[in-house]
Amino acid sequence: MDIQAYLTPYKYGKPVLVGSGISGHFDENAVDCPFVFQHNDKFYMMYVGFDGTGYQTALATSEDLLNWQHLSVILRRNEGSGWDSVNIAGTWIMKENRIEAPPVLKKWNDKYWLVYHAYPETGYEEGSAKIGIAWTDDEDLLTWHRCPDPILTPEEGADWEKGGLYKECLVEHENKFYLFYNAKNKNKGRWIEQTGVAFSSDLKQWDRYEHNPVLHVSPERWDSGFASDPCVLLHGNQWAMYYFGYNYKQAQEGIALSQDLIHWDKYPDPIITIGEPGSIDSIFAHKPSVITHNGVLYHFYCSCRPFTEGDPTRNYGKEFRSITVAASHPIFNE
Hints:
Strand content: 35-45%
Oligomer: single chain
CATH topology: Tachylectin-2, Chain A
Strand order of the largest sheet: 1-20-19-18
CATH superfamily: Glycosyl hydrolase domain, family 43
C-alpha cells in the first residue's frame, strides 16, 4: 500500500490553539476536535471547548495556519431542541473533497451544512450521543439553525453502535451524501469504537450501510480499542480516511484507503505516533483534520500530555489537551 502522498511526518511540536483557562469560559478546561477549512480567503478552525459541564462549539481564524484567534461560539448550551441543549460538538461542515484543492465550503440548496453530536447529560461525554445537522446562509458562519430532530440515533442502530454516536464526516459525491461516524458498542466499562457510514439524497433521511462498520478495530494492535474520528478526502480516484486508533493506553493517527467509499483497507501501522515524554502529544495524538495549502499537507490533531504546573488549562485534573499540527514538508523552522 503506497501512502507516501498522505504522510505528514514533520510535527510543529507546540500548540496552535489552547483553551482559555478562564473560569466560566466555554473552553476553560480544554479544546478538542479541530476541523480546518478555508472561507472568504481566510482560514477557519471549528473546534470544541470543554468547561467541566460539557462541550460547546466555536470558530477560530488564522492567516497562516499556525497563529489562531478565537472568533465566536457558534453552537451553545441551552439552545436547540432539548436533546442537543447540554453538550454539543460540531465536527464537520460540508466542503471540497479533494485533498489537493483549497478546503473551501460547499453549498447545497444555497446553504452550508454542519454535522454535530450531542450528549444528553452534563459532564465529559456523559450518556449516549446522537447526531444532528444544522445549516446557515450567513456568510460570516456565525448563526446556525439546528434541525429539531437528530438524523441518527444509537437506539435505531446495530449492536456495534448502541452505546452512542460520535465524530461525523460529511461527504457529497456524485449527488449522494455519505455520513461517516464512529460509535461505541456500550456506554459503560471498556467499550469498542468503530466507524460506519450512512447514506442520504436530501440530508434529512439517512440509511445506514447494512454491513457497517466499514472500519474495524484490529485485535492486539495499536488500534485494538478504537478506530475513530474519520476524516475522508479524495486523491485522484482514491479515497483516504485519516482516523485515530486507541489501545486503551495511547491514541495515534492512522490511514485507510478505498476506491468506493465503502470498502476500506487499513495501513497496518500508525502514521503519526505519540511523542517523547514531556512533548505535547506524549499520550494522545489523535482526531485528524487534514488540508493542503501551497502544496503542503497540514495535519491538525488534538494533542495530550500530563498536566504540569503552569499549563493554561487542566482537563480531568491530570491532562493538558491542546490542538497542534504536523506537515508533509519541514516548513516550521523556515
